[in-house]
Design goal:
mainly alpha
Amino acid sequence: MQAAPRPGPRRWQGHPSLSRPLTILGVERAAFIVLLTLCYAFGNLGGGWVGALALFVPLFAAGRWMAAADPCMLAVIRANAAARAHYDPAPLPKAERTVL
């Protein structure tokens, strides 16, 4: 006789490296490639590598923070960018209206 399955989260018994995001130096791979491309273009167009390095350091720190805070953040942002915007026809109450 088998015991009834316990409710709650199920643990996956696979190798841990299969469920980790792909990172380069602690930054998600796609973000790191965009980061390097931006810094390379800035260094070539700006005429100096000091500016490219000054751009690389804060962007790299932001990428490390993003990967440490939520490893799936880039995937969520990418999925939401592909979603269509929804129109809400209900008017806002007068207290929430802002005039620019």
